[in-house]
Amino acid sequence: MRSLEFPYTLYRGSYVPAIPLHIQHVGRWFRVWAYVDSGATYSIFAKHVATGIGIDLGNAVQRFIIVGDGSFIPASFVKLAMRISDFELEGEIGFSDRLGIGFNLLGRKDVFENFRICFDDSKKVVSFHQNNEQS
To answer: How far apart, in whole angstroms, are the C-alpha atoms of residue 9 and residue 81?
Structure first.
């Protein structure tokens, strides 16, 4: 598979490694944006994303996760199919109404395990290289 490369996105006056991706629910793909965060263990999205596409969080796995300031927030985790460009994978995504940072986070679990991810701040691009790809 070819490498995937995404230009940084302008967000509140700064260029950040936020990318478009799709998540699947009841056979439909929904486009969302997420900040590629090497410091985040889990992918955490705003709860309104789940609500907006009809995901019932009533049966989700409930966990408290630690955030950047050291506090804990509740999150409801579900396994969903994800598509980053043309690469599909299944991953666990947490949804929380207490994320409070203004964007979704694409974390290491399930995503970074499938790719080598390179941040090139000088060129303002983030690239994804499939782990089993030969260099």
So the answer is: 24
Are 109 and 91 in contact, with CB atoms under 8 Å apart? yes
Structure tokens at 113: 């395990």
User: What CA–CA distance (Å, rounded) separates 103 from 44?
Assistant: 9
Q: How far, in Å, CA of 49 to CA of 132, rounded?
A: 32
Would you state the structure tokens that stand for residue 92, as one six-digit string? 């666990």
pLDDT per residue over 107-116, tens digit each? 999 999 999 9
Q: What are phi and psi of 6, to 5 degrees?
A: -125, 130
CB 116 within 8 A of CB 132: no
* Strand partners for 11: 14
Superfamily of domain 4-130: Acid Proteases (2.40.70.10)
pTM of the predicted model as reported, rounded to 2 decimal places:
0.92
Contact 23, 82 (CB under 8 A): yes
For the chain, what are the domain ranges? 4-130
